[in-house]
Amino acid sequence: MIIAQTLFIISLIILFYNYIGYGLLLYVLVQLKKVFRKNGTVISFYEPDVTLIVAAYNEEAFIREKIRNTLELDYPAGKLHIIIVTDGSTDRTPQIIEQYPAITLLHQAGRNGKTAALNRAMEQVRTPIVVFCDANTLLNTTSIRNIAKHYADPLTGGVAGEKKVISGAGDNGAAGTEGIYWKYESVLKRLDAQLYSVVGAAGELFSIRTALFEPVAPEVILDDFVISLRINQQGYRIAYAPDAYAMEAPSYDIREEHKRKVRISAGGFQAIVMLRSLLNVFRYPVLSFQYISHRVLRWTLSPLSLPVLLLSNAWLLFHTGSIFYSMFMALQLAAYLAALTGFILAGRNIRTKIFYIPFYFLFMNIAVYQGFFRFLLNSQSAAWEKSKRKMQTT
Questions:
Q1: d(CA 209, CA 151)
Q2: Helices 323-347 and 301-320: crossing angle, nearest 10°?
Q3: Contact between 226 and 220 (Cβ < 8 Å)
Q4: Tens of pLDDT along 333-364?
Q5: 49 φ/ψ angles, rounded to the nearest 5 degrees
Q6: Quick check: 388 pLDDT over 70?
Q7: In b/e form, how buried is each residue of 289-302, taking b as 16+ CB within 10 angstroms?
Q8: Which of 124, 317, 335, 367 has the highest CB neighbour number within 10 Å of its CB?
């Protein structure tokens, strides 16, 4: 009985803390920090030379739109250098880029993955700041300015931009739910940055000081995550620039989103092992607290807590008949039933948020289990598999 009660309480606390409690605690800590310490002001006119690196793989259908958007970025003439690396592309992406003399094209026939391509591109960078973004995203016009100004602070080693999922009026399923997820992540990133540092930048748009870059092994799956956290390990913080954002269409369907989540999960376990020194709260007290709370728990104990909570609840209900355990079991079963309904409706292209949100939550956690087994079996390729996305509108 005591064991079951302990498992029930611990799993409930982990789930609540990871998905709700950490955000609330962050908010409180940030407010306390504001009381005892004044935040420094960001210089709005700091404009160092910047190199923008875009990794593009078989983006023939979208690359002209990406180039147009890139060339329209508002930054002083001569201070923004553009490199697009298309290693392994078998369509006309390299030939299209060659038509634009303002862009440096790097291309080789062999495909070794995005990480290897970024390492190769970094060898060509001669500016103090480098910005990375994906080929299937569009940046707001002032994004480079809004990133660069953060480097006026010498303790800023990198800057995380914002990811915005473009949802149409009828996107009440995968698109809408994916957008809600990223809005919640944006709130956490803002609070993380206000407390100390963003924990792991997203590859859609992030930046680092060139001098702090360390080449990443080709087998690394989440290059953006590892690169940014290595900056943290060198004693620098990752700032957050919500006014610099990459706009991206949502996943084409739940299958495409599932591929992404499983890959990210496998990469997450790989990163936990690679960056295990970040688990040392005595060495990195604030950063470790943020890293474990925001990232590690989400990839480890939280998914494990879901079945533990259900099974311990069932055992306690069977042996006690308690009204509390009866009501809690009813809530859990209702949530799983809603998730199952969301799955069935999604298969029929009927997507309603009331059912799709619990389904999305459950399917993310299932993807973690699948990613874990891919990590154990070393079966997740570091080479990025291009995902289908809905048509973008600008």
A1: 8
A2: 130
A3: yes
A4: 999 999 999 888 877 777 777 888 899 899 99
A5: -65, 140
A6: no
A7: bbbbbbbbbbbbbb
A8: 367
